[in-house]
Amino acid sequence: MKVATVVGIMLIVVGFAGFALGGISFTHEKEDIDLGPLQVSHKEKSTFPISPILSSLSLIAGVSLVVVGARSK
Prior knowledge:
This protein has a two-stranded antiparallel ribbon with strand order 1-2. It has helices spanning 3-21, 52-71; strands at 23-35, 38-49. It contains two helices and two strands. A hairpin with a 2-residue loop joins strand 1 (23-35) and strand 2. By secondary structure, the protein is of the alpha+beta class. It has one domain. The radius of gyration is 19 Å and the shape is elongated.
């Protein structure tokens, strides 16, 4: 696979994630207290929002990169 095709597929996936999920969510663990053997922590969920305009641009760019990658053979 060519680099343009791989990048195009990644952009298409990001575009669909932006439309379907409204963004990309991730969870990370924060440590609150660390007193020797006693540790208190909590998990925090964060969302990176992707606007519909960026999702559209990502889909258009991804499709065009896949087409360019397929034509260059």
